[in-house]
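Key idea: predict the complex, not the pieces.
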Amino acid sequence: MKRFSQLLTLSSLLFFTGLAPAQDAAPDVLVKNVTTEVVELITRDKEIRSGSRTKLIEVIETRVLPHFNFNAMTALAMGQSWGKATPEQKKRLTDEFKTLLVRTYASALSAYSEQKFDFRPLRAKPTDTDVTVQVRVLQQGAQPVPIDYSMEKTAAGWKVYDVMVGGVSLVANYRTEFANTVRDNGIDGLIKNLQTKNRSLDEKK
Amino acid sequence: MKRFLAFIAFVALAGCATTGSDPRDPYEALNRDFYAFNDAFDQDIGRPIATAYRNHVHSEIRDRVRNFFGNLSDLFIGVNNVLQGKFEDGFLDWVRFAFNSTFGLFGLHDVATDMGLEKHNEDFGQTFGRWGAGDGPYLVLPFLGSSTVRDGIGSALDAYFDPLGEVRPIDVRNPLIVLRLTNTRADLLEASRLLEQAALDRYVFQRDAYLQRRRSLIHDGRPPREVEPRSSVNPQPLSSVDSIYHPRVPQNYEAVLAATHP
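Result:
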């Protein structure tokens, strides 16, 4: 029996050390691990299941955010205007956009109810540094919903710079909204808009 | 057919109001009016009914309802696949219909999916798109919501060939149509909640999502992508209109395309 528990400790150690260097993990492995981990957390955690938004956002911030490149996401959503923003504006834009995306992501996750995931094999050459990782969410009686993560290899590991849900790129979808606001109210106007939006989301909850 | 006439009238009407700044959406002012109308209708009637349906009808029963209408739709999903030259997919849609209608008890159970025959998503709008028809101007149709000139004509054909339209007596057909609408709206409750949260301007966000989604569906999830500057930090100015943005192309996209469209 003792031997068995030793074996268990050893194998769990191996398991965790195997996971530890997340930076080196292949992009598809990373997506799978993080997804499985987060889904397990939110289905087990009592606070989250009883609707604690703060706890859910905390989970997203610690487990999911490190794998996203919000700078790149904001730059892509801004398009041409990004070049015209000052470093200070860029920082504030990125912060506000990040907050908005995290709030939205939290809502999406809170609607999770036992859907199954189908992690597609990665189709890429080992030398690729910019890839799409495909996951599909399976549901009863309907076409599976594809979720594609666009990921780029950086010094700090693979980072997501866009998410496509059912063929809709999240980043591309903000492009027109951002462009319209910048055209009408300037970059500071956009920052203010995002702030107002984020505040209204916090008040609602 | 009535819907189709209404649609023609709408397009004629829309022709009078060119105000938008987005080249994809020349009738923005009029579209926004219809959007507001649809939204009010949804707030007062659509959403409350769909929410009640979701909260009070057991998910097991809702699954049966979804499967039943999904099974009916497989017939013309198959037709559209064949029209698009995807004969194998079209054939499999009909096999789905055959299995689900018999072993699945009139489509109440989606046994075909369990057998590995995946459900597809096709309609006449997508078929026209596959044949090379562009979107045409974006339209918001009363009650029906987001569409384009191409998809509007497609929807008219979808409605014309709708198997439910054949059901008689009318007293049976109409409740079935209402049930189908309720089921569809209930399935979209989460999506519409997310849309409200994510968007700065819901009209623009929904329009862009619709256009992206249709483009993706026409190409069965793998639209050809236009190459954009690789640098994510300093995108080069685009020669075309900045607002029309296609996502960046990852390096493995060719491989992904090849895997999906052999």
